[in-house]
Amino acid sequence: MTSNITISKGVYSVTIKTIEISDDHSNQIRPIILPQVKQKQETGAKTNKVIDMLKISHTIQVRGVLTSTTDRNNLLLIFEGAGVQGSPCSIAYDTYPNSPLSMFMEKLIITEKAIDKSTNNPHKYEVQVTLFEGEIA
Q1: HEC profile for the chain?
Q2: What pLDDT score was predicted for residue 103?
Q3: Which of 68, 81, 89, 110 is deepest in the core (most CB within 10 A)?
């Protein structure tokens, strides 16, 4: 496991024991491919130009486990707004330098797992959460 990540909103807070965290930073660029006239083709290819739109997005995808039904229910309540509509969640984890972050839950998948008592594995739910950094427009 990498580290624990805590998602909080309103009066609810859930800590996910993470298996994997993917931190995606994307920037929107526009390439400008210039034509090469026939007379100058023998000099070789031209370097393309790029317009940097600076439309940067930040997404975090978390895969981890929950051990209780209460945590599962609280995570669902957070996803559904936690009674605090229009505001982001607070995301905290120890390996991220700018923690806590204000992010919105874009997607939540919860998979119920059978508990294997012979291996002493108490993880009842596996979760996948997609979080998007931004602010309300």
Answers
A1: CCCEEEEEECCEEEEEEEEEEEEEEEEEEEEECCCCCHHHHHHCCCCCEEEEEEEEEEEEEEEEEECCHHHHHHHHHHHCCCCCCCCCEEEEECCCCCCCEEEEEEEEEEEECCCCHHHCCCCCEEEEEEEEECCCC
A2: 93
A3: 89
How far does Cα 78 stand from its chain's mean position?
15
Q: What is the pLDDT of residues 62-86, one digit of tens each?
A: 999 998 889 999 999 999 998 887 8
Q: Which residues pair with 108 in a beta bridge?
A: 129
Please give the Cα distance from 117 to 29 (Å, whole number). 51
Gap between the Cα atoms of 69 and 116, Å rounded: 16
pTM of the model: 0.78
Residues 6+ apart with CB under 8 A from 100: 90, 91, 92
